[in-house]
Amino acid sequence: MALFIALWVMNSSSDVKQAVSGYFHNPRGYTGATKTAGAAPASRDTMARLQEQIEEALRGAPEFERIRRNVVLSMTAEGLRIEMVESQSGMFFVNGSPTPTEAGKLLLRMLAAEIGRMPNGVVIEGHTDSHPFRNATPVAAYGNWDLSTERANAARRLLCAYGLRAEQVMEVRGFAERRPMDAADPGGVRNRRISLVVQFTLAVEASP
Fold first, then answer.
1. CB 111 within 8 A of CB 82
2. Are 189 and 18 in contact (CB under 8 A)?
3. Judging by DSSP bridges, how do beta strands 120-127 and 169-174 pair with one another?
4. Is 92 helix (H, G, I), strand (E, B) or coil?
5. Other Cβ atoms within 10 Å of 179 Cβ, number
6. Is 102 helix (H, G, I), strand (E, B) or coil?
7. Is 146 helix (H, G, I), strand (E, B) or coil?
8. Contact 127, 176 (CB under 8 A)
9. Which pLDDT score is estimated for 175?
């Protein structure tokens, strides 16, 4: 069987060979993803340029000095991760609410303008600290799972309103307190955040 597969690949088109090669290099990245016409998956160099563009846009923002310490960019195995880290008073979302602040809307507008030019998929995550939300229990009342998920979805709606294409959104995740940014201080305010991951893989094409 292996011999027949090898012979088939050898006689296939370059697109098939590239797809097979890509699958074995990164099976997860090729699952469910289709190519956009004329586009190619972003390399680390491309992502690095995107990071520079976002940082430049931030520096030009009127509120840059106030928000710059609350925006953290890093390159990961999945892609470019952009963290919108909250402050004690509520930098990007009203405390205890999925309602974005003006600073949150401004930052999401800038991010949508830059990321919306790319063919890559985006994952949107919501995170909270470990403090129970208004004494909610796991089975009663509104809690951290609800808040993290609703904030991520609120960010998705604004990003799409500001220029992110709907097909770029690959997942909207709410993690509550399960993935802290500061594991040494699970109740710390820096664990409250929205994370955008611009994936190396392409977005799924929109249906015609």
1. yes
2. no
3. parallel
4. coil
5. 14
6. helix
7. helix
8. yes
9. 98
Exposed, middle or buried, 155 (CB in 10 Å: 0-12/13-18/19+)?
A: buried
pLDDT by position in tens, the chain (length 208)? 444 444 444 444 444 444 444 444 444 443 333 344 444 566 778 888 888 888 888 888 777 788 888 999 999 999 999 999 999 999 999 999 999 999 999 999 999 999 999 999 999 999 999 998 777 777 778 899 999 999 999 999 999 999 999 999 999 999 999 999 999 999 999 999 999 999 998 887 654 5
Dihedral class, residue 93 (left if φ above 0, else alpha if ψ from -120 to 50, else beta): beta
Give the residue from 36, 30, 83 showing the smallest Cα distance to 197.
83
At a CB cut-off of 8 Å and minimum separation 6, what does 37 contact? Answer: none
> What is the length of the chain?
208
DSSP one-letter string for 5-61: HHHHHHTS-HHHHHHHHHHHH-HHHHTT--PPTT--PPPHHHHHHHHHHHHHHHHTS
Contact yes or no for 73/51 (Cβ under 8 A): yes
Tokens of 200: 């190396």
Predicted confidence at residue 145, as pLDDT, reads 94
Name the strand (E) or helix (H) holding 127. Answer: strand 120-127
Q: Specify burial of residue 87 (Cβ count, 10 A radius: 0-12, 13-18, 19+).
A: middle
Residue 27, token pair as written in the block: 């099976």
pLDDT of residue 40: 55
